[in-house]
Amino acid sequence: MGNKQGFWEKPTQSYWIASTGDTNYPGVKENLKVDALIAGGGITGISCAYLLKKEGLKVALLEADGISKGATGHTTAKISSQHRLIYSRLIQQFGEERARQYAQANERAILEIKNIVRENNIDCDLMDRPAFVYTEKEENIQRIEEEAGAASDMGIKASFTEETGLPFPVKAALRFDGQAQFHPRKYLLALIEIIAGEGSHVFEDSKVVQVKEGPPYRVLTAEGVEITADHLIIATHYPLTGRVLPYVVRLYADRSYIIAVKAKKPLPPGMYLRAEYPGRSLRSQPFEGGELILLGGENHKTGQEVSALERYQNLVSFAEENFQVEEVPYRWSTQDYRTMDGVPFIGHYSSATPQKYVATGFGKWGMTNGTAAGLIIRDLIVKGKSPWQEVYDPMRKTFRQSIKRFFIENLNVASHFVKGKISRGEKELELEKGQGKVLNIEGKRKGAYRDEDGKLYLVDTTCTHLGCELNWNSAEKSWDCPCHGARFTYKGEVIEGPVMKPLRVKMKKNPQ
Ligand SMILES: Cc1cc2nc3c(=O)[nH]c(=O)nc-3n(C[C@H](O)[C@H](O)[C@H](O)COP(=O)(O)OP(=O)(O)OC[C@H]3O[C@@H](n4cnc5c(N)ncnc54)[C@H](O)[C@@H]3O)c2cc1C
Ligand code: FES
Fold first, then answer.
1. Which CATH number fits the domain that encloses residue 44?
2. Looking at the domain assignment, is residue 297 inside a domain?
3. Helix 96-119 to helix 184-195 angle, to the nearest 10 degrees?
């Protein structure tokens, strides 16, 4: 790619956000009482709010920032029940009954999105597409075969194939039919318009900072407004009351990178995922009379020191090898939370908090799982139960099976905690413009960033959540936490994650 279109100088920007308008919902100004308060305006919160309003509840959706600008505004937006090779593992780990619940919830979510689009006549580039997980390795063919059998047993239209249409050789692939893709922000901006009105509300720039337990729940915003609700739904990606132990030790954040490519060769009409690491995720998107190929991959745990530019470069190289690239107009990255056993937490927040619900840990499959969360939480509120509640139960006790993974992940987190604390950092203050790094200034670890005007920003790199040490993210110019995925701007302001407090600023300006 070289630098022919000034590619590397362009700021990262999600195509979904760039191609849709900004929303302009008010901030919440006055105390209010509603039947259900939903915190978070991504696909999960919006699906919950839409479905509950349809049942006649008066809802209020509170979004800290702008609608659908979080993970949902940065996704790949495949609508699929094909979550890599999940079904063989689910059957082994949870048993057939619960594996079937997972399959049914996700298949139902695909239909639900299609129904909502049809009923409301939403123009969101929704297209039916088969989904494939392909392998380039002989030794994985059997796993693909077994997964096709397991998924078929769960009632999914799944098959084993060697035909993918991809322009490079694959050994075998798992094919699911009846899957789809869409423009997530076009879909959600249409839904949000239906939510506001008739006693229901949508608020932006309205961050929930405190929850007084209920029911009824009393929720305080950063501006000091109080909203009372019989039902409270936490759809803030990471559960907002992030110091609660069961969630702190069971969720971790994983980042991936996406480039949007204009190419001479089109992608065959499917959605693709490589079975092996490094992952490669592919789908197309209508664009200016042609198409963009969305290529994602290069995942790693948030806050680990990696060269993000190298990650993008790897994706560009893959695209150039396979698709005759003309231009890469967009690139962006984002993160999603994973649970230790790989199944999201959707349902009652805890046994001590009736009528409080949570949905998180979608493991990069939140289009269907987030929609399924809407269906499950609606059913729990309206009918008292959901046919899929057991597999997603946030209070489930499946640690024995996943205990090894639990320790691996947390040892990794713990090592970041310790390593960060004792790191000597860099000594010199020779930062280039646009560069950020950890410095050792007078024996103390500080995060430094020099902006394009030469202004130096110094922050305390200790995360304000639970004290892990942050690392520099060169692609997004942010300070990222390896423990639970909190992210801060170079000025120390909170971007996302389970934190409320900004970083301590060490020194605002130093023109050296
Ligand atoms: C690279 C990548 C690719 C992916 N591709 C796919 C895919 O192809 N298919 C798929 O199914 N899934 C995919 N996913 C996963 C999917 O994008 C996410 O699971 C999903 O978007 C999460 O939605 P959400 O509504 O839970 O969170 P978000 O979209 O992050 O929404 C949460 C909202 O809560 C707000 N918020 C946070 N704190 C507060 C607070 N205190 N008060 C009020 N509001 C608050 C945030 O501002 C945010 O807008 C992908 C994920 C990644 C990382
Ligand atoms: S996000 Fe938990 S310690 Fe930083």
1. 3.50.50.60
2. no
3. 70
What number of other Cβ atoms are within 10 A of residue 151's Cβ? 26
* Number of domains composing the chain: 2
Q: Between 239 and 249, name the one with better pLDDT.
A: 239
List all residues whose CB is within 6 A of at least one atom of ligand 2. 463, 465-466, 468, 481, 483-486, 497-498
> How much of the chain exceeds pLDDT 90, in percent?
76
Residue 248 — pLDDT band, cuts 50, 70, 90? Answer: confident
The structure's pTM equals 0.93
CA 108: distance to chain centroid? 20
Query: What pLDDT does 508 receive?
Result: 46
Instruction: Provide the domain limits for residue 195.
Output: 21-75+185-242+342-396
Q: Count CB-CB contacts under 10 A for residue 158.
A: 23
Q: Which ligand 2 atom minimizes the distance to the CA of 481?
A: 4
Nearest Cα neighbor of 139 from 271, 272, 275, 279 is 275
Q: How far is the CA of 369 from the centre of ligand 1 (A)?
A: 11
pLDDT in tens, 358-401: 999 999 999 999 999 999 999 999 999 999 999 999 999 764 44
Residue 330 placed within a domain: no
Please tell me the distance between residue 161's alpha carbon and the centre of ligand 2 in angstroms. Answer: 43
**CA–CA distance, 394 with 410 (Å, rounded to integer):** 19
Dist. CA 484–CA 488, nearest whole Å: 13
DSSP, collapsed to helix, strand or coil, labels residue 394 as coil
Same domain flag for 486 and 375: no
Give dist(CA 124, CA 1) in Å, integer: 31
Q: What is the pLDDT of residues 183-209, one digit of tens each?
A: 999 999 999 999 999 999 999 999 999
Q: Say if 334 falls within a structural domain.
A: no
Residue 420 reports pLDDT greater than 80: no
483 and 441, same structural domain?
Answer: yes
Q: Residue whose CA is closest, atom 3 of ligand 2?
A: 466
Residue pair 488/496 in contact (Cβ under 8 Å)? The answer is no
Q: Residues 496, 428: one domain?
A: yes
464 vs 485: CA distance, rounded Å: 12
Q: Which residue owns the Cα nearest ligand 1 atom 33? A: 40
Final residue belonging to a domain, choices 396, 412, 442 = 396
The ligand minimizing its distance to the Cα of 202 is: 1
Q: Which of 326, 361, 396 is the last residue of a domain?
A: 396
Q: Which atom of ligand 1 is nearest to the CA of 43?
A: 25
pLDDT given for residue 402 in this prediction: 47
pLDDT in tens, 98-143: 999 999 999 999 999 999 999 999 999 999 999 999 999 999 999 9
Q: Which of 237, 300, 337 to mutate to test the pocket of ligand 1 (most atoms within 8 A of CB)?
A: 237
Contact residues of ligand 1, CB 6 A cut-off: 39-45, 62-65, 69-72, 75-78, 207-208, 235-237, 240, 256, 258, 296, 334-336, 362, 364-368, 370
CA of 427 to the centre of ligand 2 (A): 25
